[in-house]
């Protein structure tokens, strides 16, 4: 990929999109463009077509999506399905129409069956029932995977998908109802410490496991894939996408204890088992990406420390 390629990051303001922008700039890519909400609502096909016709990028990264934690997914089910379907369909079709040379579509580990064999290999896709709480989002992301693959098979488009594990880091959403677990715990323990609260509520039983990747690692994997992997490398292996994971997971209770210790909260942890646990485990098998030459490098403890430092430095404008 030439350093002068015009690269569109759809979702450039989000945690993933902004980290990818930083990683591309650090690698010397100078021709990055964005698509702002006031230029086009990504759910509006004509507005996306008009933007792409006018800007004609060489490369497109789809990091734009309606995202959230388990509660948001289970509450806004219609929006999670409709918005994500429209965003991906408009961007992928518009890219084809204007001849985008390479497109990378990002999804999530929730695309896999609730009880997929662990660690989860790419071949497990569509092999079983999805987790109910995030089924709409999962179906939208699976459709995006299949759209990229179908455009490769029908039109020869160099479009493929990567499925990251649970992500966290600078720029995350810290809204206590809509966010993912790690930012939610960070905010809860921080506020508990500053207010002198004697306890913090953690949702669920704390027994389920998650594989957490620091978003700067994810951004590094995205740049690696853009520079070293083509759609043919994926589809000719008989898979429809490639996993991005750290290779290790922790229980939610171990995560809570780690965040609590790093922040220095002295109170108790109380588990609210009336809240859903979701999928019992989502450990990604990232061996294919490792074989291609990429490994994650930021440990969970280091990632939490960096995120908390960012949280303290940006507390006045974090998304709450
Ligand atoms: O991160 P999270 O919301 O999403 O929840 P998923 C992970 C686990 O943490 C669940 C527990 O068992 C939650 O019950 N948890 C404990 C909490 N305390 C909290 C809290 O205060 N807030 C939140 N949010 N969780 C998402 C999917 O599933 O994973 C998305 O719904 C996406 O679509 C994302 O795929 C990566 O990991 O369960």
CATH C-level: Alpha Beta
* Total of DSSP H or I helical runs spanning 4+ residues: 11
Strand order of the largest sheet: 2-1-3-4-5-10
Radius of gyration: 19 Å
Q: Approximately how much helix is present in the residues? A: 40-55%
Which outline best applies? globular
Q: How much β-strand is present in the residues? A: 5-15%
The overall strand count is 12
CATH level-four homologous superfamily name:
NAD(P)-binding Rossmann-like Domain
Bound molecules: guanosine-5'-diphosphate-beta-L-fucopyranose
- Gap from first CA to last CA: 37 Å
- Average pLDDT, rounded to a whole number, is 97
The biggest beta sheet reads: 6 strands, parallel
Unreliable stretches covering 5 or more consecutive residues: none
Oligomer: single chain
Which class of secondary structure composition applies to the elements? alpha/beta
The ordered string of helix (H) and strand (E) elements is EHEHEHHEHEEHEEEHHEEHEHH
Please name the CATH architecture. Answer: 3-Layer(aba) Sandwich
Total of domains: 1
Explain the overall architecture:
The chain has helices at residues 15-26, 45-55, 70-75, 77-98, 135-155, 181-195, 215-228, 231-235, 252-263, 287-292, 300-313; strands spanning 7-10, 32-34, 59-62, 102-106, 159-164, 166-168, 199-203, 209-210, 212-214, 242-244, 250-251, 268-272. With 320 residues, the protein is an alpha/beta fold. The chain has a single domain, classed as NAD(P)-binding Rossmann-like Domain (Rossmann fold). A six-stranded parallel β-sheet has the order 2-1-3-4-5-10, sandwiched between helices. A two-stranded parallel ribbon has the order 6-9. Strands 7-12 form a two-stranded parallel ribbon. β4, α5 and β5 form a beta-alpha-beta unit. Guanosine-5'-diphosphate-beta-L-fucopyranose (GFB) binds next to α3, α6 and β7.
């Amino acid at each position: 990929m030439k350093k002068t390629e015009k690269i569109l990051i759809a979702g450039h303001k989000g945690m993933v999109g902004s980290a990818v922008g930083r990683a591309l700039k650090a690698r010397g890519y100078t021709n990055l463009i964005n698509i702002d909400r006031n230029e086009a609502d990504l759910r509006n096909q004509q507005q996306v077509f008009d933007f792409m016709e006018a800007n004609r990028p060489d490369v497109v990264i789809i990091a734009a999506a309606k995202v959230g934690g388990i509660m948001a997914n289970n509450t806004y089910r219609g929006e999670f399905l409709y918005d994500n379907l429209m965003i991906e369909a408009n961007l992928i079709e518009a890219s084809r129409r204007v001849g985008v040379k390479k497109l990378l579509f990002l999804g999530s580990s929730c695309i896999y069956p609730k009880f997929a064999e662990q660690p989860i290999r790419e071949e497990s896709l569509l092999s079983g029932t999805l987790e109910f709480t995030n089924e709409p989002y999962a179906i939208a992301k699976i459709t995006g995977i299949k759209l990229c693959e179908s455009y490769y098979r029908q039109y020869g488009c160099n479009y493929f998908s990567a499925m990251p594990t649970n992500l966290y880091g600078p720029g995350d959403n810290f809204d206590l109802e809509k966010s993912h677990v790690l930012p939610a715990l960070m905010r809860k323990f921080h506020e508990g410490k500053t207010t002198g609260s004697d306890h913090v509520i953690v949702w669920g039983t704390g027994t389920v496991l998650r594989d957490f990747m620091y978003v700067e690692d994810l951004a590094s994997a995205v740049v690696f894939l853009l520079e070293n992997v083509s759609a043919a490398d994926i589809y000719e292996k008989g898979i429809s996408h490639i996993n991005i994971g750290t290779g290790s997971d922790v229980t939610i209770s171990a995560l809570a204890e780690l965040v609590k210790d790093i922040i220095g909260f002295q109170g108790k942890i109380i588990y609210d088992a009336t809240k859903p646990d979701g999928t019992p485990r989502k450990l990604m098998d990232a061996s294919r990406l490792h074989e291609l030459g990429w490994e994650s490098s930021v440990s969970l403890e280091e990632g939490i420390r960096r995120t908390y430092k960012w949280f303290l430095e940006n507390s006045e404008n974090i998304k709450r």
